[in-house]
Amino acid sequence: MDPRSAAGAYREAAFENAPPIKIVRMLYAGALRFLDQAAQETPGGPGSRWAGLLARTDAVVTELRCSLDKNVAPDVAESLEQLYLFVEDRLREAQRTQDPEHVASARKVLVTLQQAWNQVEASSRGA
User: What is the largest CA-CA distance in the chain?
Assistant: First the structure.
């Protein structure tokens, strides 16, 4: 068996069997990883992966936004939706202007949200 396919199968099984809050945390970690990788790239430079990494981040944030359940906690879902829309807007603006400052704004929001989800998970384990 190819070790890469075994590792991929393991990651897929870990994701499929994870509790929802862990999946949310994994999505945040992935989005932040893509932003950090983009920060190492030169926007518009030859062979730059910057645009692709921002697109991947945008896809993760869009998935987070689309998965909100407004029936469970409408006020929280509305606040999260507005924050996700802000991040998506900053990523689009970064793509348009190729200005890393917009990426930094998006990253700051995602880090804050990730920390909040970490606290939610920690308090749910303690309860």
Answer: 52
At 2, the pLDDT band (50, 70, 90 cuts) reads low
Which of 12, 14, 24 has its CA nearest to residue 121? 24
Domains, the chain? 20-126 (1.20.120.340)
Check residue 127 and report its DSSP letter: -
**Coil/strand/helix, residue 98:** coil
Q: What is the C-alpha separation between 65 and 82, in angstroms, rounded?
A: 9
Distances (CA, A) of 56 to 11, 81, 88: 18, 18, 11
- Token code pair at residue 36: 């950090």
Task: Name the band, by pLDDT with cuts 50, 70 and 90, for residue 126.
Answer: confident
pTM of the model: 0.84
DSSP 2: -
